[in-house]
Amino acid sequence: MTDRHRLLVYGGTFATVGERGDISGVRGGGVPDGLFVRDARHLSRWQLTVDGAVPEALTPVAIGDTARCVLVPRGGRDEPPAYTLFREQAVGYGSFVETLRVTSNRPAPSSVRLALTADADFADQFELRADHRTYAKPGAQRSREVLGHGVEFAYRRGTWRSCTTVTAEPAPDAVEETGTGARRLVWTLELPPHGSVELVLRVMARPHGDRRALRVPRSPAAVSERLLAEEDALAAGVAFPTGWPELAAACARGLADLAALQVPAAGPEGEELRVPAGGAPWFLTLLGRDALLTSLFVLPYRSGPAAATLLALAATQATDTGADAVTQPGKIVHEVRHGELAHFGQVPYGRYYGSVDATPLFLVLLGAYVEHTGDTELARRLQPHARAAVGWMLDHGGLTSRGYLVYRADRGGLANQNWKDSPGSICSADGTRPSGPVVAAGAQGYAYDALRRTAHLARTVWADRVYAELLEQAAGDLRDRFQRDFWMPRHSFPALALDGEGRQVDALASDAGHLLWSGLLDKEYGELVGRRLLERDFFSGWGVRTLAAGQPAYHPLSYHRGSVWPHDNALIALGLARYGLHDEARTVAHGLVEAATATGHRLPEVLAGYGRDSHPEPVPYPHACVRESRSAAAPLALLTAVGGA
């Protein structure tokens, strides 16, 4: 996000608006503005003029649950503004609502001509990314129809249909063509002396495949009221630490963001669910790994997200082998997309299974859910899905044939299929990328934990002692192999990965902290790793870097090769506490909380890796998601790891 854009998020819908509340629809650069629902842009222009001129921002858009700004006509000191415009905007489920109040500053009656230019290009989000790819859309047609109270924009391509309806109270005096496909809604408003006139503008998006009966909220205030109620419900009963107000504020901010980041999903029997999205703006959808980790972080305080996530992922679990190389029976989905390009197979992410670690994390969450809640019914219901997930790990995943979970670069999809999924993120200390199939260290920790937790379910819930013993043996063998093959005696640290020939990929990376969280390392190795992660080349002062500084591969502004990720650090803090390294866990927690305090108590997706000793404030990563579910939940994981210390 740029400083000129503001983000509104609610229930799978988001809007980015400029400092005056406008949407220009400009493509390229960072984040394109617009109203987005189910991966499609349903408003690409929303531009206000008054008396033919663009007003200037007296107070630019400020974001809370709604976006507010104050506008005036351009002028000078000797020409006070004739009127003031107060603009407030919000998004609801598949909708956008704005109240616009025009207040006269004159002692006599006056009139003002207000015009709003609106358009919907229905661009797929993948068209708007920085890689500037283009996609053929044969037979695509757009149409515009003037309505009694506004205008409707529609789009069709074969069987694909979507539309956007714009209405206003009072109705516009006219709807004009612009020559560009956009339409201009025009009002002539009569203003009494020092009086006001208010317009309410409503936008309803009807994306393809969404059959929910929705209504546009009556006002931004109504959206704010509903969202505040959901935030209060999510936070109710959570014991925030009274002795550490900064952590308490970060937890409260995180829960508020999680309330807005819930997106619709369906369970195995079609039941309606709400699950944590990946993040906004680019990942406001179900991402398997992200939803699982978010749910694990909040599980000690709220079990609802975990139950919903498990059911949604069970419903999308692969049941057969796909035409691609990554869809295999029992595998848990990595990403679900609803857009036009996914629908027509022009991007592979409609249901994309390119993740080596979502499947074991599904089992980890199921086991943790039963442990925390005592709800064995869900474990019984999901027993076939859990067994299928174990089957994938043992067979297609590589545990039986290779001894480890293994992935290969997916042509057309992701090069890396662990949490560090950017190209080049898995590398040696000198930056060399491994050849052949990759065995990522962190995923082996998840697999170990998954086998142990599922063995416990088999023994205590499913009454299958033989299966439990099989899984316990597999877990023990994995632990022995890992410490033999991954440990680098010269560094007293595990390798980041093994390459296709079984050679160690020797970068010193934060993934080692995930092994502490999973309990894969024995106590001696775990303590060595935990203390090493707090040395200066790893710990920036704000958190543990993804790659230790000083290695040729390190870059403080790389996505996964030197940056600081809050959720990564939350896992590390939990792992440090697990191994009894409580001082180190508190150090990580204090760094993250102080970073959050410097940014309004909200942790972004990722921070730059610059050290606190060289810059006294956290440096933002330029392309980070502003709101991300794992980062929003990270303060709760810190609370679990260190309490209110």
TrEMBL record:
<dbReference type="InterPro" id="IPR032856">
    <property type="entry name" value="GDE_N_bis"/>
</dbReference>
<dbReference type="InterPro" id="IPR012341">
    <property type="entry name" value="6hp_glycosidase-like_sf"/>
</dbReference>
<dbReference type="Pfam" id="PF22422">
    <property type="entry name" value="MGH1-like_GH"/>
</dbReference>
<feature type="domain" description="Putative glycogen debranching enzyme N-terminal">
    <location>
        <begin position="8"/>
        <end position="201"/>
    </location>
</feature>
<dbReference type="Pfam" id="PF14742">
    <property type="entry name" value="GDE_N_bis"/>
</dbReference>
<feature type="domain" description="Mannosylglycerate hydrolase MGH1-like glycoside hydrolase">
    <location>
        <begin position="436"/>
        <end position="598"/>
    </location>
</feature>
<dbReference type="InterPro" id="IPR008928">
    <property type="entry name" value="6-hairpin_glycosidase_sf"/>
</dbReference>
<dbReference type="GO" id="GO:0005975">
    <property type="term" value="P:carbohydrate metabolic process"/>
</dbReference>
<dbReference type="InterPro" id="IPR054491">
    <property type="entry name" value="MGH1-like_GH"/>
</dbReference>
<protein>
    <submittedName>
        <fullName>Amylo-Alpha-16-Glucosidase</fullName>
    </submittedName>
</protein>
